[in-house]
Write a structure and sequence with these properties.
There is one protein chain. By secondary structure, this protein is an alpha/beta fold. It contains seven helices and 15 strands. It has two domains: 127 residues, Rossmann fold (3-Layer(aba) Sandwich); 96 residues, OB fold (Dihydrolipoamide Acetyltransferase, E2P). The longest helix is centred in the first third of the chain and has 17 residues. The radius of gyration is 20 Å and the shape is elongated.
Length: 246
Amino acid sequence: MLNFVLCDDNLPTLNRLNKMLEAIFINNNIDATVSLKAQSSTDVLNYIENNKVDVLVLDINLKENMSGCDIADTVRKNNKDVYIIFTTGHLEYALLAYKYKTFDYLPKPIIEEKLEETILRLMDDIEKSPAKFLKLNNNKTIINQDDINYIRRDGMKLIVHTDDRTYESYTSFNKIEDCLPENFVRCHKSFIANVNNITDIETNKNIITFSNNENCSIGAKYKNNFMEVFKNGISSNNLDSINNRK
């Protein structure tokens, strides 16, 4: 599921934008939600610090010390992939907005048809993205790969585990493995783990733990190769947190 964050200091405008987006998601069968609608930059930045966000829709001219461009500049320092859409009633800001790798710029008042056109183009861009998103069920289900903890095979079914929920599909397990980036490593005949989201490994019990306390297993056939991933430093952020109990 794609997570949208909206920021506009005008509450009626913010609520209208939220309703338009929800209608667009429903009408076009898009697996997305507005996870936050905020009137201040502080709320947006605090949320982004602790949550994964895929799309930011920002009013440029906020009535506070930080503008929408300032929010974008701060976010871009840590996240090069988030989609940014600016809205404003001041056309002179348009060129400035594109400095922040902006996906689109929507003049106010926002027209629903134009917003829908932008969202559909964004979805098309996501579908063509080679690595950032995992697409399931004929691209109707789109999951940010950073959100995935592990992928489990259950008979003919594929189950994708994230912090918040699970997704089920009948996509081929081997096909999914082939299209994932190097931080996804086969650790068991029925599990593929995202090493970036691992918080603990108990080598004596062959158990991997993720940030939401979910677990998956390490199979004897895959153990040496899986542990070699950490020796080679593919995910250096996790090296200090692994507990190799013997």
